[in-house]
Write the structure tokens for this entry.
Amino acid sequence: MITAAFVLLAVAGMLLLVRVLIGPSVVDRVIAVDALLVVVVCGLAVNAAATGRTSFVDAAVVVGLLGFVGTGVAARFIERRGA
Amino acid sequence: MTVRTIGDVLLVVGAGWTVLAAVGVLRFDDVYARMHAATKAPTLGLILVSWGAALHLGWGGAPKLLLVSVLVLLTAPVGAHLMGRAVHRRPGDVRIRIDTVDELGGG
């Protein structure tokens, strides 16, 4: 079951990576990277459940917060300069 | 049906939600539609995955995983709102469509 969750998360990450690569504008890429970071947090949580180590959960907290900070900074940048 | 089985089911269902979100981000043809797909579905997927992992880890990791789900539930809409407002104000070469009323237009 946990392997199935890993496979699904890998599929989601690859689809989002395609959008990051082909995305016509900066905004599409930022949105896709934001969703990709959520997928990374999901992967860290699944890995913590698979291995039983709780230190992965700390990394998940940090990645989740960094995703929000990155999106906010990119939004500021676009608002000042135009997409 | 043990707690671990419920946790496994939650993990797989949450991962399935992230796949649905990724398909939406890849297939929708507007910035706002992609933002819609990229914000809501991964949040629900992450909440389900973190609860499933919390059922696996027990009291050692459950509070932090609950913290992760609450943090993402609070910050994902705010980030998407900032992004949407930035695109609305400075579209640049992004093709957006304003239907009838420009809510942020001022005036």
Notes: Chain B has one domain: 3-89.
